[in-house]
Amino acid sequence: MEQQGYLEIKKQRTNLVVGLIVALVAVSALVFLTAGSEFELMVSDLSRIATVGSAVAMSLVVIARQKISGLFGRTYTSLAAGLILWLAAEGVWAYYELGQGSERPFPSIADALWIAGYIPFMYYLYGTSRFFGKGIKRHTVVIVTVAVAGFMLFSLNAILSVFDTSDPESLLPLAISMMYPIFDAACVIPAVLIVTNAGRGQLTSVPWIFIAVILFVIGDSLLGMTLVIETAEVYHITIILNAGYLCVAAGLIWYNRMFITSEKKLIK
Fold it and tell me: Distance (Å, rounded) from C-alpha 59 to C-alpha 74?
């Protein structure tokens, strides 16, 4: 009986992985094939809205079924809040680009929403890492923290080099630009630690969402580099962000199916 249950879980995990891969390939192919065309902005913006929207929808399902009490109730509610803020940010960004014809608007209200979204995301990350981070070696924490801090300082220095600090009008864009690597560093440390400590259980959904956080940080870092090297090619960043949003949706599907549904069955 136990072996049958294990095989069923393995089958469901495989099906979810296959579904995720199919969605990633389909969305990424659409973004890649329209890169450089007149449809690039529309496809990129709408694809990000669709993928983060799928994550928001699943987060609301989790909240509705799990409620907001307890550690996981609070952390997954916080995750939903962060996703909703980022959905709003993607919507505002699309409005500027598609509605007003302002390509890559910066700074804008979208930046305020993205930055605000980091706060509930960090609550989720550090709240769940207290539970799933047991067994992480102290030296691993030190190595990851030092590596991330070094990369953050490198990013801040690179961003600082492209702004004229003597111009008062550049101070706000500079401050906003520097907030991203700082918040990214704060998010990626627990994400990397949990991913490297994962794989101990068949039911865990944590790696999906924490892997997504790492993808978000990679996308942000590449976006910051476009500011430094002044490149117009950003479709690859959209592909990475879409992958992150879809991984969050997959993690929430797994959490809802394996944790919440299983818990309700036990209660009955």
Answer: 12
Question: What was the pLDDT predicted at 112?
Answer: 94
Least confident of 61-65, 137-141, 260-264: 260-264
* Position 267 pLDDT exceeds 50: no
pLDDT tens digits, 120-147: 999 999 998 877 767 788 888 999 999 9
Q: Which residue has the tokens 């390509």?
A: 103
3-state secondary structure of 204: coil
Largest CA distance in the chain: 71
Q: Are 117 and 85 in contact (CB under 8 A)?
A: yes
24 in Cβ contact with 215 (< 8 Å): no
- Up-side HSE of residue 8: CA atoms within 13 Å toward CB? 7
Q: What count of Cα atoms within 13 Å lies in the side-chain half-sphere of residue 83? A: 32
Tokens for 114? 């993205």
Task: Walk me through the domains of the chain, giving residue ranges and CATH numbers.
Answer: 2-267 (1.20.1070)
Long-range pairs for 94-98 at CB < 8 Å and ≥24 separation? 94/45, 94/46, 94/48, 94/49, 97/41, 97/45, 98/41, 98/42, 98/45
- The one-letter code for the residue type at 230 is E
pTM of the model: 0.90
Residues 133 and 197: beta-carbon distance below 8 Å: yes
Q: Check whether 257 has a pLDDT greater than 60.
A: yes
